[in-house]
Specification:
mainly alpha, Arc Repressor Mutant, subunit A, two-stranded antiparallel ribbon, 5 helices, 2 strands, 45% helix
Length: 137
């Protein structure tokens, strides 16, 4: 089941740190220490997030990273889609090609509901939840 994997979890940890104080720039070492990640991994994630337009970086003294958009405009799915296969493979317990060709399997509706609920959660959970005054939307 897709919720999200470890890389996405780490990227959300990085983004949540930036969302907590959006006006302040933070360096990769600071974020890594605060989130208990390696600095190399944090730097790599920040590079990928910057390439995707989710963070902006400024080099040099006083530099660091900030969110590229307001926290309320970034959802968990925006982050996850960088690192995950968003469209899940067939989870039909009867095997590939069963559901969608004739009568669906007995679990089809339950699996579909679970996947839709997960997507709804990822689309509607905004980084503003980490600002201390945010909510799920």
């Amino acid at each position: 089941m897709f919720i999200y994997g470890k890389t996405t979890s780490n990227a959300i940890a990085v983004m949540s740190y930036l969302a907590a104080d959006p006006a302040r720039r933070a360096g990769s070492a600071e974020i890594a220490e605060a989130r208990k990640l390696s600095q190399a991994l944090t730097a790599k994630l920040l590079t990928q997030l910057a390439t995707a337009g989710l963070v902006t970086g400024q080099p040099g003294p006083g530099g660091g990273y900030t969110l590229a958009q307001p926290a309320k405009d970034i959802c968990l799915l925006d982050i996850a889609e960088l690192f995950e296969q968003i469209e899940p493979p067939s989870l039909c317990p009867f095997g590939h090609g069963w559901c969608g060709k004739g009568e669906p399997c007995p679990l089809h509706d339950s699996i579909t509901e679970m996947l839709e609920a997960n997507r709804h959660f990822m689309e509607n959970t905004r980084l503003s939840i980490f600002t201390g005054n945010g909510n799920l939307k």
